[in-house]
Amino acid sequence: MFKIIIIFFLSLIFNQNFSYSDEDWITITSPGRINSISYSNYDVFLASENGLFGYDTFNMNFYFIDDAFRRIENKEIYIVYHDSFRDHLWILNKDAIYFKSINSNIWRELDLYSNLNIVSNNNVLNIGSNYESIFIETRDEILELNPYSGILLQSEIKNDFNIDNNIKWSSTSRSSLSDFVDLTRYFSSDQWTVINKNTLEHKGREVKITCVKEIDNNSVIVGTDSGEIFIAEIFSNRIKEVSSIPSVSNIKVAYLDQENEWWLADNDFFYLDRKFSYEREVVFLLRWIEESNQWIEYYQNEYPGITSKDINRITRYKNNLYVATNFGLLLFDIYNNDWKLYDSRNSDLLSKITDMVVHEDLIYLATNSGLYIYSISLKKILGLFSKSILNNCEIYDLEFFNNKLYVLSSKGFYEINLLTNTYEFKSDKLFLNLSASNNSIVLSTKNKAYLFDGNDYQFLFTSKNISNIKCTDDFVWAHNDRNAFLYNITNENKYKYDSLDGIPGSIIYDFNLIDNWICFNTNNGITFYNWGKFHSND
Known about the structure:
Blueprint lengths: L4 E4 L3 E3 L10 E4 L5 E6 L3 E6 L2 E6 L4 E4 L1 H6 L7 E5 L4 E5 L3 E6 L6 E4 H5 L7 E6 L4 E5 L2 E5 L6 E6 L10 E2 L1 E2 L14 E2 L4 E4 L2 E4 L2 E10 L4 E6 L4 E5 L4 E5 L8 E6 L4 E6 L16 E7 L4 E6 L11 E7 L2 E6 L2 E6 L4 E5 L10 E7 L2 E6 L2 E6 L4 E5 L10 E7 L2 E6 L2 E6 L4 E6 L5 E5 L2 E5 L3 E5 L4 E6 L5 E5 L2 E5 L4 E5 L5 E4 L10 E7 L2 E6 L2 E5 L2 H4 L3
C-alpha cells in the first residue's frame, strides 16, 4: 500500500509513506449487486459489485471494509467466505483469490492461473473450509488448499468428491451448494411486496434475490441484484428491508448542515418530462442522520412538479433546504415535506445554478447568465445583482469572506463589499475555482493555483485539470477527476492521494473539508479521510 511518487506533472515531486489504520479512512457507499454472503459469530460479510461489506449483527449496522479497496485493484468481489475454523476471510475478484486474518490488514494473493491453474474467475463457483483445509469449488473440480499458505494440496473431480465432508460453504449466486429461500412463504412488514419465490417489488421497481445465508436458527440474510438487503425471519415468516446503508453510490454532492445531517445527491439523479409519467421509482436526494445512522430517501415520483435533472449545490438555512440545479432553485421545507421549484415559470431565473452562498436574508446564486439574488424572507428571486456588471456572463465560483463576496466569472475576478453594496474588479485572469480560510484566499485556473492577499497573487503550484480547491490554514487541497493533491504553503511539500490510499472511486466529483477530515465525493460513494493526523507536523 505504501508508495513513493517520484515524478508528477511538470516535475512536481510528491512523497508519501503513511501507514493507515482502519479508522483513518471511512467509506459510505451502496453495495450494488450482492454476489455472495458469509457469516461469522458476530458479522455478516457481503461481496458486491462495489466492494466488500460487513454487517454488525449486534449493533445492526453495515460498514464498508476499506482495506480491501486500498490493496485490491479490481473492486468487484464475486465471492466472500469466512473461514470460522481459523477466523480468516477469503474473497474472489476478477484476477485472484485473496485471504487474510480478520485481525490483519494484509491480504495475501493467489493468482488464479499460476497458483491454482484456474483459467478464469468464472470457473470458480464457491469457497468453503473444514477443520483441515480450504476448498475451492470449480465447474469440474474441488481444489484443496493449505488454509494458512494457500498452497494447492490436491484436486479431485467434483463427481468423485464427498461434498458433505463436514465442509462449510459460502452462499453465492454461482453455486448449487448455497442456501436458498422461497419468498412466497414470507410477508413484508414494510412497503415491499413479494411477487414470486425470488422477486420483491417496491413502487414499480422489482429486485431479485441473488444469494441468501442463514445466520442463526431464526433468520436469513437476503441479498439482491440492486443492493437492497433483507432479513427473513424463519418462524414468523416476516421479511423486512435493512435500511442502514445508502441506496446509491454515485455521489456528486455531499453537504453537512448545521443540524449535523448529511444531504447527498447523485451525478444524474432524476429527470421528469412534463409530458410523461414514469412509474419507476428513482431516488433524487438522500438524507443521512449520522447520529442514528438513519437514511431517508426522496423519490422522483413523490414530487411530480419537480422537473430538474442535475443537482450542483446544497445548502440549508434554518428549516429550509436550498438545492441548486441545472434548471432552477429547489426549496424544500424540511418539516412540512414540501418542495417548490423556482425556474422560468415563476421567476426571471432562466439558468442553471452552479453555486450559492447565504448572507443574512439573501442567497447569492451563481448561474451561467449572471449573479442572481434570492430573498429568504420574501421567498422569491429578486433578479440580477447588478444590471451593469456580472450579467450575461457565466459565474464559476462564489466565496463569502470578511463581509465580502468574491466572484469568479467569464468577465474576470470581482470583490463585492456586501456592507456598501459596491464592487471592485480584481483581475481579468480566467480563474475557475476559489476558496478562503482565515486570512488566505486561494484561486486556481485550469492548471495553476495562486495565493491572493487582497492585492497581489503568489504562484503556488501547477497541477493538471484542477476541478476544485479548498484551503485551510497553511494547506491547499486540489483535485482533478481521478486524484487529489495536498500542498503545504509553508514548506511546499506536495502529496498525491488516489485509490491506493483509500479513495474508493475512479472519479472524484468534489470534496469538502471538515476540521481535520476531508470528505471525497466519488462514483463509488463518499469517503472520509483523517488527513490532519498525518500532516499536523508537516
